[in-house]
Predict the 3D structure of the following.
Amino acid sequence: MGRYFIAMKKVRELLQLKFIHGLSIREAAHRLGVGKTAASEYVAGFSSCGLTLNEALALSDPDLAGLLDLKKVTQNERYQHLCSKFEYFEKELKRRGVTLYLLWTEYLRQNPEGYSYSQFCFHFEKWEKVQTVSMRMEHKAGDKMYVDFTGVKQSLTDALTGEITEYEVFVAVLGCSQYAYIEAIATQTKADWIQVNENALRFFGGVPCAIVPDCLKSAVSKWDKYEPVINQT
């Protein structure tokens, strides 16, 4: 980044204009009297660092300069070592109960000088987006409610008897707003399935054009990739 050096005072102002006041990089660069290319590089460096704006601005000038050097961040040995583990992390996340936090604690035990949890998540999610080509789905308000059980039971312990009871966890999400309703229920039987869907509709205060389930037995009588048979009840 040496060719496009900007004084750290102006870099701090640039980040504030961009991420607090909402100016475009071109507008912020023009206001500060710096080149757009230089401004773009510093903004890209911040976007890749995994810190919040307040955390970044609290650093000393030398530390901030090193943090925003995108080339340095992505080509250093620590970053390359983390990248080498991303495919392993991706496979492990497909196992039930495995989370990014668990993978990070395992990574940190082996690499005490490794990345913080926020930076770890940022770099992995950025890598994952590059690996996966996906179709963007547009949702209309009130159009669809997506419903399913999580597949991971939660337990409740009676404080007096010590008896442990396991519950299924039902989730309903509105496609457009991502507003969610979550309820613990005894079973995945048809009766309980109907009840939690009714409870979700009452919670949302309305009925969508369509309720979209996954392929659980309570909702789908016969699975088919193109024309599944939905339970008529």
Q: What stands out?
A: Strands lie at 144-149, 154-157, 164-174, 180-185, 210-213, 220-222, 229-230. The radius of gyration is 24 Å. The chain has three domains: 2-73, 77-131, 144-230. The mean pLDDT is 82.
